[in-house]
Design goal:
Helix content: 10-25%
Bound molecules: uracil
Number of strands: 17
Number of helices: 6
Strand content: 25-35%
Order of helices and strands: EHHEEEEEEEEHEHEEEEHEEEH
Structural class: alpha+beta
Largest sheet: 9 strands, mixed
Length: 249
C-alpha cells in the first residue's frame, strides 16, 4: 500500500506536491469515491482517477547499479553533488534507490520505480543478507571480531548476529580487509560496528545483496534485473528466517 499522492506522482501525472493539491481540491477518486485526505493509502487493485481519467501505471523497472564512491543515494541533492539517478539519464520513469549506501560507500544498489518492491526489501522484518567488504584500520583480534558476530551495542541498540571473515591483513600498512555479512540496514551500520570494536572503516563496498552480485560491472555501470531475479528477490525478502533461534542471541 502506498500513499495516494505518491501513486499519482509515480504515474507521471504531477509532482508529489501538485498531487496533494489535486487531492485536497477533490479532483481525485479512489474506487469511484472522491478522496480529499492526504493520508489515504492505496494498493495495486484500487482504481485511482484524476479529473475523471484513470491513472496509467508506470511500467515497473528494476536496475542493479554499481554505485561509485562520492555519489549520493538520492534523486536530488541541495548541494548539487552527484546523485544515483544522474547515472540513468535515459530513464523516464520516476526511479529511486532501494535503501541507501553512504556517500563514501561503493557497491551494489537496487534502483526501481516499484514502491511496493522497495518497501518489501527495506522492511526491517524482511531479512536479506548484505555482504560488505571493509578495509579497516589495524588488525582486529579474533575476540573483537567475535563481538561483531554476536552483536555489538550501538546507540540505537544491539546489532543482530553478523558473519565475519578476514580476507587479508597488512602489518606494514596496519590495515585489514574484512568481509562482513549483515541483514539489518541501519544508518552507517557497518562503519559504526567497526568503530565499536576500535577499528574504523577506511573503505567500504557492498559486494552482494541477497543472491545479486556486481559481477561484470564497473563503478557507474548498471544492468536491468531479469523478471526472474525480481521474483526471486521478492521471495527472498518475504521468506521466513531459516533459523530464528540465532536472532535471539
Ligand atoms: N553500512 C555503512 O556503514 N555504510 C553503508 O553505506 C552501508 C552499510
Amino acid at each position: 500500500m502506498e500513499r495516494l499522492q505518491k501513486v499519482i506522482a509515480h504515474a507521471g501525472v504531477a509532482s508529489r506536491r501538485k498531487a496533494e493539491e489535486l487531492i485536497t481540491e477533490g479532483k481525485v477518486k479512489v474506487n469511484g469515491k472522491i478522496v480529499r485526505e492526504l493520508g489515504v493509502k492505496v494498493g495495486p487493485n484500487d482504481k485511482v482517477e484524476v479529473n475523471e481519467v484513470p491513472l496509467e501505471k508506470e511500467v515497473p523497472v528494476y536496475f542493479l547499479f554499481y554505485k561509485p564512491r562520492g555519489v549520493i543515494s538520492a534523486v536530488s541533492d541541495d548541494k548539487e553533488r552527484k546523485v544515483v539517478t544522474d547515472f540513468f539519464p535515459e530513464i523516464q520513469e520516476r526511479i529511486y534507490p532501494v535503501g541507501r549506501l553512504d556517500y563514501d560507500t561503493s557497491g551494489l544498489l537496487l534502483i526501481t520505480n516499484d514502491g511496493e518492491f522497495a518497501n518489501v526489501l527495506m522492511h526491517p522484518k524482511h531479512e536479506v543478507d548484505k555482504v560488505y567488504v571493509a578495509k579497516v584500520k589495524g588488525i582486529p583480534l579474533r575476540e573483537s571480531l567475535k563481538k561483531l558476530e554476536y552483536g555489538v551495542k550501538l546507540e540505537d541498540g544491539k546489532t543482530a548476529p553478523a558473519k565475519v571473515k578476514v580476507l587479508n591483513t597488512d602489518k606494514k600498512k596496519n590495515s585489514s580487509i574484512i568481509e562482513i555479512t549483515i541483514h539489518e540496514g541501519r544508518n552507517r551500520q557497518v562503519r559504526r560496528m567497526f568503530d565499536a570494536i576500535g577499528h574504523p572503516v577506511i573503505k567500504l563496498k557492498r559486494e552482494r545483496y541477497g543472491f545479486l552480485t556486481l559481477q561484470g560491472l564497473s563503478p557507474g555501470d548498471s544492468r536491468e534485473l531479469t523478471p526472474h531475479e525480481v521474483k526471486q528477490m521478492r521471495a527472498l525478502a518475504t521468506a521466513e528466517p531459516k533459523d530464528k533461534s540465532k536472532k535471539r542471541r
